[in-house]
Amino acid sequence: MTATSADSAAPAGLEMTTGAVLLDMDGTLVNSDAVVERCWRRWAERHGLDFDEVIEVVHGRQGYASMAVLLPERPMAENHAENREMLAAETADMEGVVPVPGAPAFMAALAGLRLPHALVTSADVPLSTGRMAAAGLDLPEVRVTAESVGASKPDPEGFLKGAAALGFDPADCVVFEDSEAGIRAGLAAGMRVVGVGARAARFGPTVHVDDLTRVRVSDAGDGRILLTIG
What we know:
Layout: E1 14-18, E2 20-23, E3 30-31, H1 33-47, H2 51-58, H3 63-70, H4 76-92, E4 98-99, H5 103-112, E5 117-120, H6 125-134, E6 142-144, H7 157-166, E7 173-177, H8 180-188, E8 192-196, E9 207-209, E10 215-221, E11 224-229
Parallel strand pairs: 2-5, 2-7, 5-6, 7-8, 8-9
Antiparallel strand pairs: 1-11, 3-4, 10-11
């Protein structure tokens, strides 16, 4: 049983069986909105851009890719240079970083049952390590970070690399995501997508939940994962 993209709110007791789970970080496991908004508000002011328009673009993408959308005439080398500054600023600011409700139990269940899962994030290693620690969450053994890919979400490269690293076909993976770019990337990879949080509901995930308290993880047998949603 699955929900349609037109009405993706998960009905109570929806079950999804999968081989592996691929997890976005910001907005999915970790609420870092306060930091993201502080850093990108300063960037928007520096470039004379409307903050509301900027924040609609940045969620889910690597910084250089967001800058390319927002400043389309600027050379990409400048975007990469300024993104290095942005990553450093975000890594230095952990104030207000907290776990998404349900994330600690969700991650503990995956790790405790030794079920295949990976982090697939647009953050680099220092930022992802810092934010997961600030939220009190353990890093999965398998991680696909900004350094691992040549293209930012919504390109599916990161999720495809995560599936390959775990040894699963893309169709046998479920993605957890909150952003438009991330949901598009997961669907483009041929994966089912659980949209997490209010932001995700607008972007057509396979199913949608308010937060991770609505997801229960169990072993379906033979190392497969049973997700009970809703």
